[in-house]
Amino acid sequence: MIRIGVPGVGVGNRPVTGGSVFSLLHIQGIAAEEFKKDGIEVKWNFFRGAGPAVNEAVANNLLDIWSHGHLPSVVGRASGLKTRLLAAASRRGHAYLVVPSDSPINGVRDLRGKKVAFQKGTATQLSANRILEGHGLTEKDIRAINMDASTAKAALATKDIDAVFGGTDYLSLRDQGIAKIVYTTKGDSPTYPSNSGILAREDFINEYPDVVQRFITILVKTAAWVGDEKNRTQIFQLWSKSGTPFSNYKEAQQGEDMKQNASPLLDEYILARYKSAIGDSKKFGLIRNTFDVEPWIDRRFLTKALKDTGLERYWAEWDANGKPKG
């Protein structure tokens, strides 16, 4: 059995997520089909507790391969979890600041002293800290409340909180007239959005390298499928099985380079983003110990997958600033 971890759930706690290449391996049954012929069961585990819950499962040897945002993956490694980063899963995941529809809050600077929710230990927390800092605030200037997405949505509707930092799934609250978006990282500093990666336990990699190779290969193939512009509509339809509407994914991806954002490459940009995540996490007090990124990365499987699929030059390599190299 291959035990796969997903740091999140769909709307209504459904065991389906959207918005990433990784989610398509589940929705389209790609991973299950790949290993079915060998009689290997693929078990998908969805965690409402997101990144921190995934780390707990990893610590208890309950997962083999998983997707993780930059903060929880850094927290796990910094706390001693024996994990390896195998590939990038997504780039430039945007965050939104959402408030009740009749709120007087018009932007980030208005959050001082307000009750602001986000899920602690997740990529959203790191993005929130960076956004606050960029607007002259820190977590200490707000009343930070730890809430998962479904709880925060209900609290926003009842006005038990003043604001929430979240992702694409919050756009539906705006569409229902419950909330309004007063800030988004789209078009703002490129350091604010989140990135995610594919990780695995070192023990699992050492024991089943062929399984890991096949998994990364199907990931690369699926990422290339996402990069084909003609598949965009079908992708949004598949992602909408998570309960987040098609229209919200379409809006969130408007003007975005889906091909490059789905790139699995561990290029200079990804390395820079993880190094920055480590440094910022230490600065914001989210981790105690730092570590070097390069020894954490295991490139073998991605390198072979790109070669075997003929996709070595399909994606542009980015420099540390997110610009195409060469």
Q: Write the H/E string, N to C.
A: EHHEHEHEEEHEHEHEEHHHHHHH
> How do the strands line up in the largest sheet?
2-1-3-10-4
Q: Tell me the span between the first and last alpha carbons.
A: 43 Å
Mean pLDDT: 92
Spans of at least 5 consecutive residues with low confidence: none
Largest sheet: 5 strands, mixed
Number of helices: 14
Structural class determined from secondary elements = alpha/beta
Q: Kindly state the number of beta strands.
A: 10
**Fraction of residues in H or I helices:** 25-40%
What is the approximate shape?
globular
The percent range for strand residues is: 15-25%
- Kindly provide the radius of gyration, computed on alpha-carbon positions and rounded to a whole number of angstroms: 19 Å
